[in-house]
Each structure stands twice: as structure tokens, then as C-alpha cells.
Design goal:
Layout lengths: L16 H7 L2 H7 L4 H5 L16 H11 L6 E5 L5 H9 L4 E6 L2 H5 L9 E3 L14 E5 L7 H14 L4 E6 L4 H10 L9 H11 L4 E5 L3
Parallel strand pairs: 1-2, 1-4, 2-3, 4-5, 5-6
Helix pairs in contact: 1-8, 4-5, 7-9
Length: 218
């Protein structure tokens, strides 16, 4: 298990934390956690404020391929794939790579990229409908923290089952009380969150042996 930032080449944008903190209500959280049109393509206070493909995942796909030494014919799964942007860019970066995705959002899958139609599955991270050790790598980016703690553990065990030691999980975290306060002002969907040591303890409890990193709200 290693801490490694496989999203280091992902463009960083400045979030208007104060604006969301001022506007956020329990109703905003309820709507966001439905992961429907409002969350992906509605106003910013309900989620992404428009979730559109722009190629920014291609650099991350290249780094993931290099990290695991993937080759054509290998199978990769993206848990929490949304509209399939990373799935698309992994296949673009390495033709012949067999990439699939899974997400709880029917809206996201219906509005996926044309190149990934038929590769995305509707389902939950806590039950991945694939055989043991059937993937060369499984990634889950900014997804597992949206589950209650017990389900986070179940999802981590599922990732480990499908790709022992070859997972990559990125979750919300913070290094200080100040960062935690910013996170709480921003977050809509996360139900489980810890400082890094808390996450590492949860990973160990789940028996997860893959790699990991943190998303810090700034």
C-alpha cells in the first residue's frame, strides 16, 4: 500500500468555498446525493455545475498505465465512473486496453461518452459484479467517501477482491482543523471522512493493500 498522487497532472481550479457554504442547505445535500441531472449538470451549489468532457483525464490515464505497466488486453475497472471520462481516456491512451466502469447514477450512464457505451454498468461499489482477480487494476476516485463507514469497508474489500494489491483509491481528507473547516463548508455528498491516519486505519481494517491519495478542498 503506497500513498501516490496519480492525479498530480489534473488541472487545479479555485473553488468558491464561501459561496457554497453560504448557500448550502439540507435540501441541497439531499438533491446532490441523488446523483441526477441537478448534481452533474445543474447549478454549482448542487454539484459540478456542468460535467463535460474536455480531455483533462488523458494525462491521468497515461500515468495510471505507466504506474501498473498495463498492456493491451488488460482489464481495468473505474468504480464511480460517472459519465465515463476516465474510461474513455484510458482506452485512448492505450488502444486495446479493456476498460469498464460502474456508477450508481443512471443519469450519468445515460449521458455517457459515445465511446464507452456498453462498457458502463449501473451498480454500487459495495457489490462489484465481477469474478475474483478479474482486473489488472481497479480505480475509485472521489467516490468511496460518499458511503457510510461500514459500506466504505465493504467497497474496499470488493476492490481488493477484484485486483489484489492493484487498486487506487482517492478520498476526501484534510491535514488540519482549518482544512477540515473548508471541507465541511464545501462538501455535499461525503458521508465518511478522516485525516490521512484515520483513512489508513480504515484501509487496514478492510484489508485493502492497493494505493491511495487524498482530495483536499482548497
Amino acid at each position: 500500500m503506497a500513498e501516490i498522487d496519480l492525479l498530480r497532472r489534473y488541472p487545479r481550479t479555485k473553488r468558491d468555498i464561501g459561496k457554497r457554504a453560504h448557500a448550502k442547505t439540507d435540501e441541497h445535500i439531499r438533491i446532490a446525493r441523488q446523483y441526477g441531472a441537478e448534481y452533474f449538470d445543474g447549478p454549482r451549489e448542487l454539484g459540478y455545475g456542468g460535467y463535460r468532457y474536455d480531455g483533462r483525464w488523458l494525462a491521468i490515464a497515461e500515468d495510471m498505465i505507466a504506474h501498473w505497466g498495463l498492456k493491451p488486453g488488460d482489464r481495468v475497472l473505474d468504480v464511480g465512473c460517472a459519465k465515463g471520462f476516465l474510461v474513455k481516456d484510458l482506452m485512448k491512451a492505450l488502444p486495446g486496453l479493456e476498460v469498464f466502469g460502474l456508477d450508481v447514477s443512471e443519469y450519468a450512464l445515460v449521458h455517457c461518452e459515445p465511446e464507452v457505451v456498453g462498457r458502463l454498468h449501473l451498480g454500487s461499489a459495495i457489490h462489484l459484479p465481477f469474478p475474483d482477480a478479474s482486473f489488472a487494476a481497479v480505480v475509485s476516485i472521489n467516490t468511496l467517501h460518499n458511503l457510510p463507514r461500514a459500506d466504505c469497508i465493504r467497497a474496499l474489500r470488493e476492490i481488493e477482491r477484484l485486483a489484489p494489491g492493484r487498486g487506487y483509491v482517492q478520498v476526501d481528507s484534510y491535514h488540519s482543523p482549518e482544512q477540515r473547516a473548508v471541507f465541511l463548508d464545501w462538501v455535499l455528498t461525503a458521508q465518511t471522512h478522516y485525516e490521512p491516519d484515520g483513512w489508513r486505519a480504515l484501509f487496514a481494517e478492510a484489508g485493502y493493500t492497493g494505493d491511495y491519495y487524498w482530495t483536499i478542498a482548497e
